[in-house]
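Practice problem: predict the structure.
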Amino acid sequence: MKFVIIFGPQAVGKMTVGQELEKITDLKLFHNHMTIELVSPYFSYGSPQGKRLVGLFRQEIFEEVAKSNLPGLIFTYVWAFDLEQDTAYIRSISELFSSQGGQVCYVELEADTSERLDRNRSPHRLLHKATKRNVEWSEQDLLESIRKYRLNSAPGEITHEHYIRINNTHKSPKEVAEAIKKRFDL
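Answer:
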């Protein structure tokens, strides 16, 4: 089994790359907004209730997939490298899969801020992420997160054996998915 974690800042293209990767592999995509959008009609993701429910749904899905005969899973995540709880979370879900004999692959995406701001308004993103449809709020949240968190790793920070970092500012999601497939023999 392969567990591919695609991470990077908001609007870098994680979901779209994951969708393309799903098309060319046997892996299923579980993008982070699938649980956020499920919970958001009842509780804001930022609320204690929202975070708890999102965490519970994700954990249950991870546990079932890790024990299953599925070929693998693609998961997307915004990893704040300056928050120990985010690093602990990535370690925890990675261990869940590796303890079952799965191979965990880290894919880090980065893109220029101007490109991310453009992508933030894309119809494709807004179709799949209802909580981002207030584009003015979403753009402010994106810019605030740049000031508040470090959403890409420092050079040499990630030493995981199965890791690739891709600047996809000028690459199509399909090109990026092909590079990931090739790098990890998916």
